[in-house]
Amino acid sequence: MPSPAVVVGYNVFTTADGVKLAFKSRGDQEKKPLILLHGFTGSSAVWDRNIGTLQEKFWVIAPDLRGHGRSGRKSDGQDATVARLGKDLKELVDWLGLSPGPPDDKGNSDQKTARPSCIAGSLGCAITWSFAEQFGESIFDKLVWVDQAPLQNYTQDGTWGPEHGNRSLNSPEALKSMLDTLATSPDDVYKGTINSCLAYIWDSTWGRQRFDSEAAYLKAQENDTSFFLQISQQGDPTWFGKLMSDHTAIDWRGSIKKNFSGASGSSSDILVVASERSGCFPAAGPMWIVDALLEDKNRADNASDPYVRGVVADFGGHWCYWEDAEKFNDLALDFLTSGISSNHQIINYSLYTPSATHATAMGSNAPKCNVCLIGSGGVGTIGSVVLENSGRAHVTAVLRSKYKVVSEKGWDIESVDHGTLKGWKPSRIVATVSEAALPPSGTDAQHYDYVFVSTKQLPDSYSVAELIRPVVTPGLTAVVLIQNGLDIELPIIEAFPKNTVISGVSVIGSRTEGENGIAHIGSERVIMGPHFHDGLDRETQIRQATEFVAMYDSGGPGIVSLDLDMPKARWYKLLWNGTFNTLCALMKMDVGEVQSSKGRETLLVPMMRELTAIAKEDGVELPEAAIQKLAYGLPDDCPYRPSMLVDVEQGRLMEIEVILGNALKKAERYGVPAPKCSTVYELLKMEQWRIQQDLSGVVKAKPSKVDGTSLF
Q: Which domains does the chain have, with CATH numbers?
């Protein structure tokens, strides 16, 4: 093996295309080599809980994949492919001098013992599949593949769908949503990934049972989120996006059968690990590999014993090796050193029944949460679809003006996230909030667990707190506000001082069309978290918010993340709403027209700077980079028409008070000058007055014909 350069505990070698790749080398190099391959946005650090135990039996080699951790990448992003990562693995193996050959005729030669084994998680599995595809053989003695299905996306022919594919990232539309978010708010993608990959967060009811106290649960969540977020932030979001675009486009089913089946000549023994608690894949996805490879058991060196086995782990999710390292290490070592032992309940997948396992793992027999939805427009209706799809919620939707038509016909939905839904209805539809206050029939509910509010915030027209009062049980019901504006939580806290208030900001292209249509054209991205107050303990507020986020995240491909600093998230969104939304409405221009005009430099950006100055006095620091990203991040021909512009065009009242009005009240309180925002606010109030006159049916008097010269 060449003498490596050593950098802060890492070895470094240079690939054929000139990229320096870092890897950890731990343990006695005279022992059998074991390579650990991490997944998307990770690094070799994700194996820190496993390496110490594994190196007692193996020489452990844990690389940082290209573009991850301490490893380099090409600046043009052309190397962000699974194939290139497969080549990197080949070059690493060659550079280390590990034998690439199969065993000799006797099957137990020194050459056999020199062959490396490999544990691969997620994307790492695809790298081993690419390795075998490119180089014609698998050099590995034993392979452990952890929670990766051979295909992420659902197929149009229906052969690969929700029972096998990725729970969220399973379509071109979902990928586009991720790429858009990586470009603007990469930490939202990273946090969403963390929430899906750690089972104790994704399935929080099960997760809490693993800890001695709520405080311990929350501390673990805080520590793990910080740990994995820092690892993700070492990479470049754009490069990550290109890699994921390539990863999700590849169907490995045929390749796996060609290169690893009994007829292929492969001599690798394989253990597939999956989990029904994974927020990434249902267990049937990875376990398809076991079914496919066991179709042909005729392999000369292992004819009497299947060379591929599957286990559905009950101790964690996508990152089960992190969540319970001791159990994973025991499982892996049993397989790597002596095959498969029965005390770990390893099963032949042909005997596995997905529905039964899922019911046990996810508690599907447990009572569903009762959710009351108020505001079933474009945002709320998609929200109810997500909640019902989660399998964890019974939704009562208050429809008011749409009650009659939707009761009869349902919603006709065209959605980038959920496809075509004709005549779709939630569990229950009612016409008024008072009617919703009665417990849903067919359930044992005595109260609502959550009230989901997605109405417009129009404090001059009605009080949200009074609107929802009939369906809020003091001290029990959590109120979820997916609405625009600042300080919208305060009236709710005043009305219900012992209830959790979950604040949420959503970016979604969804609107009502016709009498019962929903056009959902932009994949949802939502940030939610508790708006902390002193009426009840912090742990209860975090728990209820975490459980709702986990439920919402499991119901669709949108990007959902938990944020414990919601005031900052609201101020960030206000930078956009308080400028683009207001100016588009005032000038009757779409986003591209505002950007193409000189108004971006003379009005929009100065307004953003006024808002950041107010936010700073309010305790929220928004960097200049946020202004540059929001003001210049979209193309100049962007045709998007923000909600306030649509309101003006359709003669509906605008949310000007919660968007600009509340911000300007803070400006006055703090003594922050905001002349441009104030001017736009006053002009919008004039437009709002005109709309109110039209809505009230006031008949305008026709002006008499007057010679202009006589007015002066």
A: 5-167+250-359 (3.40.50.1820), 369-564 (3.40.50.720), 570-696 (1.10.1040.10)
